[in-house]
Design a protein that fits this description.
single chain, about 170 residues, mainly alpha, Serine Threonine Protein Phosphatase 5, Tetratricopeptide repeat, 9 helices
């Protein structure tokens, strides 16, 4: 078997919905051709889809090391880093008094991946906890622009718009 055969079998596994088997085939292809950046990239994508973020990042980094000028690899790495920042920020948001740190991570996440509606949604929550409802509304509008069907974003948008209106009309 050569690397291409392993990749072919990985894709067959993906088509059957067996992502764990696909990961094993990608790993076998990499074992045969460890300097093939495309194999690392393909494994990274499958790992990310299987919620194996650290392994996805490991192979995305390797793909970039092997082919540093590849724009697709760079975009993918940015996407994974944004996902990691969002995960860290979500954990911070579960703790009292960590909204500022969470917002900083989420601003970096949306810089790295401006198409992440989840990062914008979480950013709005961080801003809401800071009672910066104007920024919370702005983040939610961006989340909804990216994902118009997001019901949670719609509900939060109504809530934060109401709070912003109350704040603007508060005579004190």
């Amino acid at each position: 078997m050569d690397g291409e055969e392993g990749i072919r079998r990985a894709y067959e596994s993906i088509l059957r919905g067996d992502f764990e088997q696909a990961i094993e085939w990608f790993e076998q292809a990499i074992a045969l051709e460890p300097d093939n950046a495309a194999y690392h990239y393909k494994l990274s994508i499958t790992c990310a889809r299987s919620s194996r973020l650290s392994k996805a990042m490991e192979h995305a980094r390797e793909a970039l090391r092997l082919d540093p000028d590849n724009q697709a690899y760079t975009f993918h790495m940015n996407h994974l880093e944004a996902m990691e920042f969002a995960v860290q920020a979500e954990k911070l948001l579960e703790q009292q008094g960590q909204a500022y740190m969470a917002a900083a991570l989420l601003r970096e996440a949306v810089r790295l991946d401006p198409l992440s509606s989840r990062a914008y949604l979480l950013l709005s929550v961080a801003y809401g906890e800071q009672e910066d409802f104007a920024l919370a509304v702005q983040a939610l509008q961006e989340a909804l622009r990216l994902n118009p069907e997001d019901e949670m974003a719609r509900k939060l948008l109504g809530k934060y718009k109401h709070k912003l209106h109350e704040y603007m009309n508060d005579p004190s």
